[in-house]
Write a structure and sequence with these properties.
Blueprint lengths: L9 H16 L3 H16 L5 H20 L10 H13 L4 H20 L26 H16 L3 H16 L3 H5 L6 E2 L4 E5 L5 E5 L2 H18 L19 H13 L10 H13 L4 H8 L4 H4 L1 H17 L4
Antiparallel strand pairs: 1-2, 2-3
């Protein structure tokens, strides 16, 4: 069997763990207990997905570590001034406006929970404001770029390496279905109906939906299941559809590393990460005549307003074509 390439993203993940462990070790006991209770609340009472809970945990851990650095040891000491200072420090660190807005929203959720649990007497985040999210259009890959991408993946897979077979299958499936990277990582083999070419997805809020996929994705997944997955499978694999080289369920960070490296090879594109394949799938569906409700169902959006973002992408492309082609534009 050909030698396998090293999977991207593994070294950086392992290097980050000791630093996270040190932060947790130096965190005041009340902060650690509150963080654990809040995550338990999100998982058991709010039915948030594992991916969402991890995101909330990371955001609040950052807030509590910042508070500890300022000399605070109890939740009651956290006030509006500290919250603003925390967001200011994140802004100086270069975080995007959308990220700052999300961190502020997470902080409001945490302090609201702490007030209801009577861990604090007043909610310091009631007057906390964050930068408005910039309404930039998502990066979308052009059809020609996607063809080049899939040709590259197919050529690599033809050599027979399990890693290349897996990468081709996961990229094909991401674009064919428009599912989120966390949803892809959570797929089990039994979630695929190979005859009907559909898959069952557990999305945000533990909402289940069925999504179709096309023949190219079906062939790539079949190749991975027959010729690639057996090489990676081990005692820890379980029913996971996609595996890392160590035989465990693939991590979303590994998928991001794979797609980011592939997009860099395309050159001129604003697309980055696996979410670009979701953006591209939605935009190309609408450009091809799919109705908005169908795209909403495929993407698993709870609100039609979220799906309408992709109509803006299509209208923007239509406007550019009009201005280039119409003699009186």
């Amino acid at each position: 069997m050909p030698a396998q390439k090293t999977e991207p993203g593994r070294g950086s993940t392992q290097a980050a763990k000791p630093e996270a462990a040190r932060s947790a070790a130096s965190r005041p006991a009340e902060f650690s207990q509150a963080l654990e209770s809040f995550c338990s609340y999100l998982s058991s009472e709010r039915a948030r997905s594992e991916h969402t809970v991890r995101a909330y945990e990371g955001d609040i851990a950052g807030l509590l570590d910042y508070a500890a650095q300022q000399g605070l040891t109890t939740l009651a000491e956290i006030d509006l001034h500290l919250l603003r200072g925390w967001l200011g420090a994140l802004n100086e660190a270069g975080l995007a406006r959308a990220t700052l807005a999300r961190r502020a929203a997470t902080a409001r959720s945490f302090t609201g929970w702490a007030l209801r649990e009577e861990k604090i007497q007043a909610d310091p985040a009631l007057r906390l404001k964050a930068p408005k999210r910039s309404k930039t259009l998502p990066g979308v890959l052009r059809p020609a770029q996607l063809e080049a991408l899939f040709e590259t993946l197919a050529a690599a897979a033809a050599e027979g390496g399990a890693l290349a077979l897996r990468d081709r299958a996961l990229v094909e499936l991401l674009y064919a279905t428009g599912i989120r990277v966390g949803e892809l990582a959570g797929l089990d083999v039994d979630d695929l109906d190979l005859d009907r070419r559909t898959l069952r997805v557990l999305g945000k809020g533990n909402k289940e939906r069925t999504v179709p996929y096309g023949l190219p994705a079906a062939l790539a997944v079949d190749d991975w299941l027959r010729r690639g997955r057996p090489d990676f499978a081990g005692p820890d694999s379980g029913p996971a559809l996609f595996l890392g080289q160590r035989g465990r369920r693939i991590d979303p960070r590994q998928v991001r590393a794979v797609t980011s490296a592939l997009f860099e090879s395309l050159g001129d594109t604003s697309a980055s990460g696996p979410h670009a394949l979701r953006h591209s799938a939605a935009t190309h569906l609408l450009d091809g005549g799919a109705d908005l409700r169908s795209v909403q169902e495929i993407l698993g959006h709870s609100s039609l307003a979220t799906t309408q973002l992709y109509t803006h992408v299509s209208v923007d492309r239509l406007r550019r074509s009009y201005q280039q082609a119409h003699p009186r534009a």
